[in-house]
What we know:
7-stranded mixed sheet; two-stranded antiparallel sheet; 48% strand
Amino acid sequence: MSAYNWIEFDGCCPSCKRNVSIRCQTHFCSDYDGDETGRFHDRTYKLGDAMAWWNSSDSRYSQWLDSNLSVTHDYDVNDECCYSECLSCGAELFVIIGFSECTPIKTLDMGVLSDWPQGYYK
Length: 122
């Protein structure tokens, strides 16, 4: 079992073509460990919200930074392809989210789950 968090944003669903809320399951900054605010999982964030995570002086922070996340063309931005769903029509989607340090900053791509992009873990 893996820890995960949720990221929600408004966007155009590729299935129903309406501007709706999209919910994404991310493993980025997710762990069953935590700090004084609680465990680092099952929290909901919006694009631009800093995610709870270890302080940069903690050794676990640098271990996380060196993890196997892919790095996009923008230096200092990591991305993750996330299982997602349209909160209106219920369509199963994927969303690639770009992160800067511990903050989800933008969506890079979105589509129906059957079109999951190559090069990303499922």
